[in-house]
Amino acid sequence: MSLWSRISDALSALAAGEGLGAMFDKLRKPPERTVGFAIAVIALGAKMAKADGRVTRNEVTAFREVFAIPQADEKSAARVFNLAREDVAGFEEYARKIATMFDADSAVLTDLMDGLFHIAVADGEYHPAEDAFLERVAEIFGMPPREFAALRARNLPDAKPDPYTVLGVDPSMSRKEIRAVWRRLVRETHPDRMIARGVPEEAVKLAQSRLVAINAAWEEIETTHGE
After folding, report:
1. I need a surface site. Which of 10, 44, 68, 95 has the fewest CB within 10 A?
2. Residue 137 Rama label (left phi>0; alpha psi -120 to 50; beta)
3. Model confidence at 15, in pLDDT bands (50, 70, 90)?
């Protein structure tokens, strides 16, 4: 059964009157965490679309880059998006439910934030309202400010990012300490690791651009940083 068929089944199983918040409570354990991850990205993506007041064609295309949606399953994805967009619950309530669903697993929540950043910058503009939205979601997820800054630096397309910010390290750290952080980030970005922690195979491609940014930052630091 495909991911999207399982999502459709999960939606159909909702009792009358239940919202997505109730669904998040039911998707906490493997293998349903994979379904939960997909629904979390769609739901928060829908809420984020309201942050800057519009949903552009590029944002829709970006969502399709995060998740390869077969034509037969488009209705399931659209239903999740519309449920989230129309739900009276605020995005903060969704974010709290999602953090609980993943037991505040920082690696999974980082994967999820990467997907949201990818959608946010798809139209070539990173709107201040989107930044405020994502910063608040990261705060609810328990993500340290330095880690959020690293995510933002890796995902914003405009200026050349500071390599130390990209890795989430301090320039005062030794090269050995920075190298250890870089190696950890590379391990966490490996597709096998991502799938093991519940990221759908359809979304693992996000790791490719993340890994490029991480490696580029380390290469720059390696050539300029003292011991």
Report:
1. 68
2. alpha
3. very low
- Let me know how long the chain is: 227
Instruction: Give the pTM.
Output: 0.76
Phi-psi region of 201 (alpha: psi -120 to 50; beta: other; left: phi over 0): alpha
Q: What does each C-alpha distance from 2 to 8, 219, 223 come to in angstroms?
A: 10, 39, 46
Number of domains in the chain: 1
Residue 112 belongs to what domain range? 3-224
**At residue 160, what are phi and psi to the nearest 5 degrees?**
-65, 125
pLDDT in tens, 119-166: 788 777 788 888 999 999 999 999 999 989 988 988 886 667 889 999
Q: What is the pLDDT of residues 168-226, one digit of tens each?
A: 999 999 999 999 999 999 998 888 888 887 777 766 777 777 888 899 999 999 888 76
Separation of alpha carbons 155 and 153, rounded Å: 6
Coil vs helix vs strand at 121: coil
**Spatial contact of 225 and 178, defined as CB atoms under 8 Å apart:** yes
